[in-house]
UniProtKB/TrEMBL annotation:
<protein>
    <submittedName>
        <fullName>DUF1349 domain-containing protein</fullName>
    </submittedName>
</protein>
<dbReference type="InterPro" id="IPR013320">
    <property type="entry name" value="ConA-like_dom_sf"/>
</dbReference>
<dbReference type="Pfam" id="PF07081">
    <property type="entry name" value="DUF1349"/>
</dbReference>
<dbReference type="InterPro" id="IPR009784">
    <property type="entry name" value="DUF1349"/>
</dbReference>
Length: 197
């Protein structure tokens, strides 16, 4: 059972150029060049991505739903779980290799990146779920009402104060607009391989 989080309850990390409520959704415009990345391979640090964040306690999960309609290289949207500028995880849909990719970046001093193509998810409503239990963050995603897909299992200090919520970035240019349709929290998943209720 999840409970919707009002958009007004979040605090912006790097406020976007535009964010407005529309029929219960939140429509956000990303600044050109916005990104979240630390060092690996590219050699730069970027901490300019936009994220609407609220506390995520141990034993809780957060879900973010959005319409995946972006098409420029590296355009991305999903959920961000952040401890500080050197410790964070982002997961969602990102454009790479000419197609939407379901991916995650786990950052603990330096970033790593994993992805898998999901071209059939283009233009659909995607939900990303980050579940915090014990020393782990379990990431899952789905398109529409389809089945959940396991995306990543990442470490997260059980004593860390973390924030989480919807995020978006447009590293390569301006014009990325994302419609976030839902932000909710609830109990963490009871097991790594248990289906989400």
């Amino acid at each position: 059972m999840t409970t919707r989080v009002p958009w007004s309850q979040g605090t912006w990390l790097n406020p976007p150029p535009e964010a407005r409520e529309d029929g219960g959704d939140l429509v956000v415009l990303a600044a050109g060049g916005s990104d979240l990345w630390r060092t690996t391979s590219y050699g730069f640090v970027r901490d300019s991505g936009h994220a609407l964040l609220a506390p995520l306690a141990a034993g809780e999960a957060v879900e973010v739903s959005f319409v995946a309609a972006h098409d420029r290289l590296y355009d991305q949207a999903g959920v961000l779980v952040r401890v500080d500028e050197r410790t964070w995880t982002k997961a969602g849909v990102e454009v790479s290799d000419g197609a939407p990719q379901l991916g995650a970046v786990v950052t603990r001093g330096a970033s790593d990146w994993s992805m898998a193509p999901v071209p059939e998810w283009a233009g659909t409503t995607v939900t990303v779920r980050a579940s915090r239990a014990g020393d782990a963050l379990t990431l899952r995603a789905r398109s529409g009402g389809g089945p959940w897909r396991m995306l990543r299992l990442a470490p997260l200090d059980p004593g860390a104060a973390a924030l989480a919520g919807p995020y978006l970035c447009a590293p390569q240019g301006e014009g990325l607009r994302v419609r976030f349709t839902r932000w909710a929290t609830g109990p963490a998943d009871t097991g790594l391989h248990d289906p989400v209720a």
